[in-house]
Here is the input.
Amino acid sequence: MKTDQPIYLYLSAGPEAFRVLTGGLTLDGHYRFASITVKGLERRLDGLFEPADPDRPVYALEFQGQAKDATFYNLLTKMGLYGERQPRRDVQGIAVFLRSADAPDFPRRIAGADSPIRSVFLDQVLPDWLAREPDNPYVAVLAPLVIATDAELRERAPTLWQSVQTAAVPESERKTLADVLLFWLMERFRTLTKTEVMQMLNLLTSIEDTSGYRAIKELGIAEGKEEDLTRLLARRFGPLPAWAAARIAAAPIAQLDAWLDGILDAPSLIDLIGAETATPH
Here is the structure.
């Protein structure tokens, strides 16, 4: 199941999303949310919560949808790169896993009381959230990630949808949560047509007509093309310099397509995407 773009959109909905996804951790005071690329190794954080009060901790959050041995080391690297830029800030990491079984074994003692990283396992915390706060739209949105069977999710989907649609939250947040829930339901029920999913939720508007779904889908397409282009360029011309990786990451889909089409004919990286000082077009 794709998670990067929906998780970003979910976290952007506000501090309640942070509380639910982290298993109850609350943001004390005003925080600014962003998803940033930490310069140095071009590592992207899924979510960065920077407080207005410099004495409060900065939270660096990573969502891991599948088992990866390097998850903790990856997050520690990003925390270190951010901390190098902000050495007077207290940077705390949060690693959110779909399943407790996905947590890596190393480094040892990463789960200790003094660890710089807090681990959250959705298969452990979300069932409790659903039992205690069944009408919380921020909880409902995450339900497709942990409800075990398609049959149970199909049965509960209309109630989850209503929890979002009737929530006493600002319209912008309700729309964001609805888009994320729709996206994950479509990912979960890939064998169903959009009409069948709409009927399941009693929707009158096509899911693919919602701006949030289109935005998530376009981001996913762009990310896939970016990965393909980066891999092919590295095979053709060797490791990419940081400026080239940054230019590719910032390019629109049409430009990525043009570069992919021209990769076999270009004699060099610069001939394909331009020189370092050139303005991308």
Remarks:
- The chain has twelve helices and seven strands.
- Strands lie at 31-34, 37-38, 43-44, 47-51, 58-64, 91-97, 117-121.
